[in-house]
Design a protein that fits this description.
By secondary structure, this protein is of the alpha/beta class. It has a single domain, classed as Metallo-beta-lactamase, Chain A (4-Layer Sandwich), CATH 3.60.15.10. 26% of the residues lie in helices and 25% in strands. The strands form three sheets. The protein has a seven-stranded mixed sheet. Strands 7-8-11-12-13-14-15 form a seven-stranded mixed sheet. A hairpin with a 5-residue loop joins strand 11 and strand 12. Helix 5 crosses helix 6 and helix 6 crosses helix 7. 40% of the residues are buried. It binds nickel (II) ion (NI). The site of nickel (II) ion has 6 residues, from loops.
């Protein structure tokens, strides 16, 4: 009897330890606009379009690059300031690469803004596996990609070509697929991306003017991409980005997609 009880206790303890280990769930924190901190199940920290310090939607207490802790990888969808954001500073601070459009990284390296090893190049359909079980693929986005940098000699702003904008398919250890669309307008291959990559979680711009409007975003979500979950982003940071999550939800109507209700600063595990 005692032996059986002991066996039960040992088994129960082992199962508890197993549960604790399996609890490493990926976590996504939104900073407003298209900026996210993604922590993988394995504990790797990926910053996406890290516009933190100048982002009017980032809560004041989060406007601190030190407070992000260790960063393992940076992803940037295009050269606009509200996406490139603090990527250069974060890359140097953590000595980690920025994976962005090939043309953007080429310009950053050529100008000496980043050393070449921190500005590696890839292109659309290319996939990297920076950590075991984590795969990142660049896909098409319908947008533009200039980059404004200060000339160190004259102190004046200079506009540089920064490659072609991209969206990102991020597949995590659990198989969860996130589609960060970057900045984009409507394009028919969103249907292809939906069918081919089958994203679970869609991070979709809805502000309008520079990106999808709520109506366009709802159409792409419902008719083409059909994700399990969607988080509307890229709105309310400047007067042109007028679209709201309420308009997006209203335009979506009845759908199988769950629209996540998150505010800048919020975290969610998956
Ligand atoms: Ni943009």
């Amino acid at each position: 009897m005692l032996a059986r009880l002991l066996t039960f206790i040992v088994a129960a303890s082992l199962s508890l330890i197993g549960t604790a280990q399996a609890q490493g769930k990926p976590e996504l924190q939104w900073f407003g606009q298209a900026a996210f901190k993604l922590t993988t199940a394995g504990g790797k920290v990926i910053m996406i379009d890290p516009w933190i310090l100048g982002n009017p939607k980032t809560p004041q207490e989060l406007k601190n690059l030190d407070a992000l802790g260790k960063v393992d990888l940076i992803l940037v969808t295009h050269g606009h300031g509200d996406h490139l954001g603090d990527a250069v500073e974060l890359a140097k601070k953590n000595n980690v690469p920025v994976w962005g459009p090939a043309g953007m990284n080429q310009t950053l390296a050529t100008l000496g803004v980043l050393p070449a090893n921190l500005a590696p190049r890839m292109n659309k359909s290319g996939t990297i596996e920076p950590f075991p079980g984590v795969k990142i693929t660049q896909v098409h986005a319908e947008h533009s990609s200039e980059m404004i940098l200060k000339d160190p000699v004259t102190g004046k702003d200079v506009s540089y070509a920064a490659g072609e904008p991209v969206g990102l398919i991020i597949e995590l250890e659990s198989g969860l697929k996130i589609y960060h669309m970057g900045d984009t307008g409507l394009f028919g291959d969103m249907k292809f991306i939906g069918e081919y990559y089958k994203p679970d979680l869609l991070l979709i711009p809805i502000g309008g003017h520079f990106v999808l409007s709520p109506k366009d975003a709802a159409y792409a979500t419902r008719e083409w991409i059909k994700p399990k979950m969607a988080l509307p982003m890229h709105y309310g940071t400047n007067p042109f980005l007028r679209g709201t999550p309420a308009e997006y939800k209203a335009a979506l109507g009845q759908t199988a997609t769950e629209v996540l209700d998150m505010n800048p600063g919020d975290k969610k595990t998956f």
